[in-house]
Structures are given as structure tokens and as C-alpha cells.
């Protein structure tokens, strides 16, 4: 029997985001990519991710923006998204269980699929602007 609680608060989201990105930063496949793109702006990135997931999971609309454009030019393939999803899902599962935890994993998978599809489209159609 699973005794974990579901995601209920911003503090819960911070647990996921902080642990997930700590894993990302040292991951052999993803660490260099993320650290190279984010550089010394990790605190700002984490704050943005708190707001994003707070909006998605808690329906507290604190995130404004469009997440895709900053990812459009990254040199990523399916393996990068597979690793991202594995780290994300294991982080969520390590702390939470329930409807919102499942929603987080579903949303992560949906974003990974959409982002990879759009990145590949823009690679194949370089004359089309992302913005």
C-alpha cells in the first residue's frame, strides 16, 4: 500500500523541482546541455519552474510566458527527452502519489513529445521562425 501523499502545495512542487534539477545538473547526458544553456541563472530558472508547475498542477496562475522558444535551438534528440522523463518521473514517484502526481508525469510526457516534435519541425524548416 502506497502511503505517499499527493502534490498539494507550492512547497511540494519545490521539492520536485529542486531534486529534479539537482539530478539534471550532474546527469551525464543532460548536465552539460542544461548547465551550458542556463549558466549562472539557475535560481531564476528554478523560480520559473516553480511558477510553471504551480500553474499546471495547483491551478494558481503564477506563470506567464511561453516555454518552447528557449528550447527551440537546443541540440536535443529523443534520447535527451527519454532521459529527462525518466529523471522527472522517478523524482515525482519518489515523493508523491495521487491524481496530481500522475498529472505531473502526464504533463511532462506531453511536453517532451510536443517539444521534440516542434524542434524537429524547425530543424527541417529553418526559414520558419519560432517566435
CATH class: Mainly Alpha
* Global shape: globular
Approximate strand percentage: under 5%
The CATH topology name reads Globin-like
Overall average residue pLDDT: 92
Query: Total number of helical segments?
Result: 5
What integer value in Å does the Rg equal? 15 Å
Following the backbone from N to C, one meets helices and strands in this order, namely HHHHH
Largest beta sheet, briefly? none
Q: Write out the CATH superfamily name.
A: Globins
**Low-confidence regions:** none
Structural class: mainly alpha
End-to-end distance, in Å?
Answer: 47 Å
Q: What share of residues is helical?
A: 55-70%
CATH architecture: Orthogonal Bundle
* Count of beta strands: 0
Work out the count of structural domains.
Answer: 1
Structure description:
With 131 residues, the protein is mainly α. The protein has one domain (10-124): Globin-like, CATH 1.10.490. It is built from five helices and no strands. It has helices spanning 10-26, 31-38, 42-58, 78-95, 99-124. The chain is globular.
Amino acid at each position: 500500500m502506497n502511503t505517499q501523499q499527493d502534490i498539494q502545495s507550492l512547497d511540494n512542487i519545490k521539492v520536485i523541482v529542486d531534486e529534479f534539477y539537482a539530478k539534471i545538473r550532474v546527469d551525464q547526458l543532460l548536465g552539460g546541455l542544461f548547465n551550458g544553456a542556463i549558466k549562472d541563472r539557475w535560481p531564476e530558472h528554478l523560480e520559473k519552474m516553480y511558477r510553471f508547475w504551480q500553474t499546471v498542477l495547483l491551478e494558481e496562475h503564477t506563470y506567464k510566458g511561453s516555454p518552447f522558444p528557449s528550447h527551440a535551438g537546443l541540440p536535443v534528440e529523443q534520447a535527451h527527452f527519454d532521459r529527462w522523463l525518466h529523471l522527472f518521473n522517478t523524482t515525482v514517484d519518489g515523493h508523491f502519489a495521487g491524481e496530481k502526481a500522475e498529472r505531473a508525469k502526464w504533463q511532462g510526457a506531453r511536453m517532451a513529445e510536443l517539444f521534440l516534435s516542434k524542434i524537429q519541425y524547425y530543424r527541417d524548416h529553418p526559414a520558419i521562425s519560432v517566435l
